[in-house]
């Protein structure tokens, strides 16, 4: 599975207009046969909204890209966005390494913990992150996934995606991890595998994936 993420930055004073346009577009995705969701980043230096689209494989992604350029509905949608954004949107491609458990409901908040592997440590870091995600982390409505960013000029990145049903759940998890010897061991394992400190982003889910 692959995921494309398109991030849009609203013009000053056009935040709500842009959000409404994106919510309307993503809400109609199931009719177009597209599985997508909309999120907004919290505690960021500037407002932004991200549409994430899931693709079964790169061939499906290629057909999606080709189809949208001949879709008049998409052309009209992009024409509306031009007046609402302050700069061109960014696009990223991710491979899904570990998926959320099917037992976990669609999260309301998603925390992205972004890791940059040290030279030659990509495989080992992927193993450590994967094992941690699979080691009984899908509890209390909290889900963990792992994705790998591809085709990036910033180098390879591996991302822990942790989904929470509420911010209070995130707060409780942070408190529990501070005294969890297993989490301390996990930290010691990943420290020598990264080229720089990992960082965290938090997003609120505005429109979830259809069917979740």
Verbal overview:
The protein has 212 residues and is α+β, with helices and mostly antiparallel strands. It folds into 2 domains: 2-94, Alpha-Beta Plaits (2-Layer Sandwich), CATH 3.30.70.100; 98-207, Alpha-Beta Plaits, CATH 3.30.70.100. 33% of the residues lie in helices and 30% in strands. It has 6 helices and 8 strands. It has an 8-stranded antiparallel β-barrel, surrounded by 4 helices. It is globular and about 55 Å long. The two termini are 17 Å apart. The model has no long low-confidence stretch (mean pLDDT 89).
Structural class: alpha+beta
Topology pattern, helix = H, strand = E: EHEEHHEEHEEHHE
What is the helix fraction of residues, given as a range? 25-40%
Tally of DSSP helical segments:
6
Judging from the principal axes of the Cα atoms, what is the shape? globular
What are the segments in which pLDDT stays under 50 over at least 5 consecutive residues? Answer: none
Distance between the termini: 17 Å
Specify Rg, calculated over alpha carbons: 18 Å
Report the sheet with the most strands, covering strand number, pairing sense and barrel closure. Answer: 8 strands, antiparallel, barrel
**Which strand order spans the largest sheet, edge to edge or round the barrel?**
1-3-2-8-5-7-6-4
Portion of residues in beta strands equals 25-35%
For the record, the CATH architecture of the largest domain stands as: 2-Layer Sandwich
What is the number of E strands?
8
CATH topology name of the largest domain: Alpha-Beta Plaits
Whole-number tally of structural domains: 2
What is the CATH domain class of the largest domain? Answer: Alpha Beta
What is the residue-mean pLDDT, rounded to a whole number? 89
């Amino acid at each position: 599975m692959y995921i494309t993420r398109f991030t849009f930055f609203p013009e000053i004073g056009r935040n709500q207009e842009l959000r409404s346009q994106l919510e309307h577009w993503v809400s109609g995705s199931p009719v177009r046969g597209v599985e997508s969701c909309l999120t907004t980043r919290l505690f960021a230096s500037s407002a932004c909204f991200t549409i994430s689209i899931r693709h079964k494989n790169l061939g499906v992604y290629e057909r999606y890209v080709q189809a949208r350029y001949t879709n008049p509905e998409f052309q009209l949608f992009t024409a509306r966005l031009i007046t609402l954004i302050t700069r061109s949107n960014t696009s990223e491609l991710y491979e899904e390494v570990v998926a959320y458990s099917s037992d976990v409901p669609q999260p309301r908040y998603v925390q992205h913990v972004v890791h940059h592997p040290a030279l030659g440590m990509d495989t080992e870091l992927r193993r450590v992150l994967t094992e941690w995600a699979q080691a009984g982390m899908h509890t209390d409505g909290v889900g963990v996934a792992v994705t790998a960013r591809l085709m990036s000029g910033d180098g390879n990145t591996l991302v822990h995606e942790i989904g929470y049903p509420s911010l209070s759940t995130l707060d409780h998890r942070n408190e529990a991890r501070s005294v969890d010897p297993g989490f301390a061991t996990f930290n010691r394992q990943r420290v020598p595998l990264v080229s720089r400190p990992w960082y965290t982003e938090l997003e609120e889910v505005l429109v979830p994936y259809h069917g979740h």
